[in-house]
Structure formats: structure tokens, C-alpha cells
Amino acid sequence: MKRLEAFKRFNAKYLKLTRHYSSYDELVANPPEADLYIAGSDQIWRINLNNGKDPAFYLQFGGKQTKRISYAASFGLPYLTDGMDYLVKTFLSGLDAISVRESSGIEILERIGLNGTLVVDPVFLLSKEEWVSLLGVKEPIISEPYLLVYDLKVYSFSPVASSCKSPFFRNRKSDDHIHHHLNHLYFLMFTHAKLHFHSTFSLAP
Predict the structure, then answer these.
(1) Do the Cβ atoms of 35 and 63 come closer than 8 Å?
(2) pLDDT tens track for 55-68
(3) Alpha carbon distances (Å) from 49 to 44, 70, 107
(4) Which among 29, 99, 171, 193 would be 20 to 30 A from 78, CA to CA?
(5) Nearest-10 crossing angle of helices 85-92, 103-111
(6) Are residues 185 and 135 in contact, defined by beta-carbon separation less than 8 angstroms?
């Protein structure tokens, strides 16, 4: 709950948002007014999840005059599941330019006859100094040598911690501490990238 509230406060302070959309039909009926739509996120086109089959995440709405591109999008898998090639190609053919964050994404595009550009994950668009400034950290969080791992599953450090010799990773309190700061960093990475755009629309999962 606290993490959700942190997202809400950040969004209200820094992001210029359109109205909230809860379905693709709502987007089609009343699309956001913009010169350019940008799709991009980790696993946004993962075909075995609902968003990977939803035309909203391929920007299939709005007028013909609006440009559509992706930046550092991801398929989340190294291949498309059987029978999905035609669907994905049809949706992506509506984009004016496609960029993805993984070489496997380029291979998927080539297999379905589309061109794409490989770009860096948005986290690498900022320098170390910019990240430190955003985090507001003046002193190193940890003074001793350590290994930092980010995983998709919340509190999934335990298997890693149990295999490490460092007492830092065997201490659960420290494990929670590092996960808190890491989640905060990832949150800043995701939201700060949006600040470069004039507006963004909100779509419920």
C-alpha cells in the first residue's frame, strides 16, 4: 500500500496525464490527443499475457495523423508462441518505427518480416550522477563489498542470499533494506523516463 501511494504522489507531482482508460474500447471511442504515441515497457508485448494480445498496447487507436513508435519495448520471451506471428505482425505494422531492448526482439521482428532498432533500456539513458541525485543518497548505502541483484519476484533474494558467503546477504533485515532501495531505484527509472514526453495515458491492466 505504501509503495502504491508513492507511485500516486510521484505521478501527481511530475506527470501530465490524460483521463484514465480502463479498456481498449474506451481508447478507440475517445483517444488521447497527441502528435505522437509511444509504446514501451518491459514485457509490454509478451504474447502469453493479456497485454501481449491487447491492441491498446500496440497503439491501435487514435487518428491517422498521429505518429506511433515504440521505445525499448520488449516481447518478454525469445520467441512468439505458435499461431501468434500474424497477430503480432498485424498490430506492429501500424507503427511508424519500432525499437526494442533485446536482441531477441530484433530476431522476432526479422522472423515476421519487420524492421526494428535495438536500443538501450531507459535506465541507461541517465548517468550514475543523475541516478544518485534522483535517489537523494549522499553516502553509500553499503560500505562493504556486495552483490546487487534485481529480480521480478518480490523478496526473491532468499535463494541468492543463502548461497552467498557474505553475512550481509544472510541477514534478512539487510535483505529487506537492499530490496527497498532497489525497488525505489527501479521506480525512479520507470517514471523518470516518462518525463521526456509531453503527456502519457493511463491504461488499467
Answers:
(1) no
(2) 999 999 999 999 99
(3) 9, 19, 20
(4) 193
(5) 100
(6) yes
The pTM (predicted TM-score) of the whole model is 0.69
The Cα–Cα gap between 82 and 14 comes to 41
Classify 99 as helix, strand or coil. strand
* Cα–Cα distance measured from residue 168 to residue 14, given in angstroms and rounded to the nearest whole number: 35
Report how far apart, in Å, the C-alpha atoms of 89 and of each of 70, 93, 111, 137 are.
Answer: 14, 6, 10, 44
Residue 126 burial (CB count, 10 A): 16
Report CA-CA distances (Å) from 158 to 7, 141, 152: 26, 20, 13
Cα separation, 33 vs 12, whole angstroms: 20
User: Residue 142 contacts by C-beta under 8 Å, 6 or more apart in sequence?
Assistant: 168, 178
pLDDT level of residue 152 (50, 70, 90 thresholds) = low
The yes-or-no verdict on residue 12 having pLDDT over 50 is yes
Residue where the block lists cell 509490454 = 44
